[in-house]
Amino acid sequence: MAKTKCKLKTPKTQQDIISFLPEEVLTKILGNLSVKDAIHTSFLSKEWSYKWRSISDLTFDSDSFSTPNDREPSTLMILYLSKVLEFLFLHRGNIRTLQFNSI
């Protein structure tokens, strides 16, 4: 028996509730996520593409960045720092705190 795909339709007028929150609240919510998870929210919709850039409290965790485990520690540090610098280059908001974990 062949499987058929069933696509659920939602009314086009229906919007997500979280997008109606004030910008300050959204920024606070994103600030409570890991940097990696905050960046992943950019895939939710066009409106969310750049919201992660306004986070003011940044915590970078080296475990959040996927790097091969077979590399030397100095190479891993360079990869980690290059990803942090890339993030900071793309960031557009004020930075209140900057924290590094598990370096």
From TrEMBL:
A Pfam family the protein falls into: F-box
Residues in F-box domain copies: 15-48
PROSITE patterns: FBOX
Entry's transmembrane regions: none
InterPro entries assigned: F-box-like_dom_sf (IPR036047), F-box_dom (IPR001810), FBL60-like (IPR055294)
Name of the protein in question: F-box domain-containing protein
UniProt organism field: Zostera marina (Eelgrass)
Organism lineage string: Eukaryota, Viridiplantae, Streptophyta, Embryophyta, Tracheophyta
